Amino acid sequence: MSEELDYNEDELNAWKEGKTGFPIVDAAMRQLLHEGWMHNRLRMVVAMFFTKNMLHDWRLGEAYFMQNLIDGDFASNNGGWQWSSSTGTDAAPYFRIFNPVTQSTNFDKEGLFIKKYVPELKDLDKSVIHDPPKEHRKYCGYPDKILDLKASRLRAIEAFKAAKSYYFSSPKFSLDQEDTYTAIEKLQVFINLYPNSEFIVEANQMISELQEKLEQKDFEIAKQYYTIRDYQSAIKSSENFIASFPGTKYRESALFNKFKASYEIAVNSVFSKKLDRLQELQQQYEVILRYYPETLFLSELEDKMKTVNTEIDKLKQTTTTLTK
């Protein structure tokens, strides 16, 4: 993801010093410098602005907070930054982004917080203080905005075109899927960076299609192991597939593929291992019927289970005879 991020030292310093040209962001950052603290909502506002508008690496902001917060706690600060940037565990959904001007007008209607920490704006009326016009900025000695929020749409269009090109490079499922993984990564980066883009629905649909291709690839690999009679690999790959894609539409078939491979191993096992393996097949059979009582494979399952139950009875009789 880092290759998609921006790094501009002048913008970084403007953010640190509270000179971005966005009053609520600047007030919050100046409070941090003066008092070593800021309200939780403001922490989210400046963090989202830093990562989703400025496109800077969240780790730079996280480190700066730790240097200046008197209540700095690594777990809380690190987790908060990952949440705000829509990365890491339990992050904010990709579509959540705080508009700093809207946040300012909603939670500092009179502009009192801004006036306290950005004193050059203290004489402005509440109708303009949240986003001062150019002439007011010049008069007050307040900087212009370091970025144009509206311009992000054009940037998003170009980013989506680039991500989409990787989507079209993804081959059919039977071929190597390196390009598919790359396409998913690029599309996810686009979604994280431009959560309000008009292309979000299309990008998510593309990711779903690509992920289904990966599912089909892994499922066909598991089936192929059974076809070539590598039953141990068929079992392992089926288990891995089910664990990797718990919601897959191929789950029923994968469970049956595992059952068939386990059956071939069990019925051909040596005496000392045969009973345990056959009883394991009974459990697999019960799992399939529990989740898929009307499974498409019911007839074949029942045929094989007749053999399994017959073999189990024989083994138990043999064991009883040997112990007498």
What is the CA-CA span between the terminal residues?
A: 69 Å
Tell me the β content: under 5%
Q: Find the structural class using helix and strand composition.
A: mainly alpha
Residue stretches low in confidence (pLDDT < 50, at least 5 long) are none
Mean pLDDT: 89
The sequence of SSEs as H and E is: HHHHHHHHHHHHHHH
- The number of distinct helices, counting runs of at least 4 residues, comes to 15
Largest sheet: none
Q: What does the radius of gyration come to?
A: 30 Å
Q: Helix content range of the residues, please?
A: 55-70%
Instruction: Specify the overall morphology.
Output: elongated
Strand and helix map with partners:
Elements lengths: L8 H9 L5 H13 L4 H14 L4 H11 L5 H11 L15 H8 L4 H6 L16 H7 L11 H18 L8 H16 L6 H28 L3 H14 L6 H17 L3 H21 L6 H26 L1
Helix pairs in contact: 2-3, 4-5, 9-10, 10-11, 11-12, 11-13, 12-13, 13-14, 14-15
Structural write-up:
The chain has helices at residues 9-17, 23-35, 40-53, 58-68, 74-84, 100-107, 112-117, 134-140, 152-169, 178-193, 200-227, 231-244, 251-267, 271-291, 298-323. The protein is built from 15 helices and no strands. With 324 residues, it is mainly alpha-helical.
Quick overview of this protein structure:
The chain has helices at 9-17, 23-35, 40-53, 58-68, 74-84, 100-107, 112-117, 134-140, 152-169, 178-193, 200-227, 231-244, 251-267, 271-291, 298-323.
Give me some keywords for this one.
single chain, 324 residues, mainly alpha
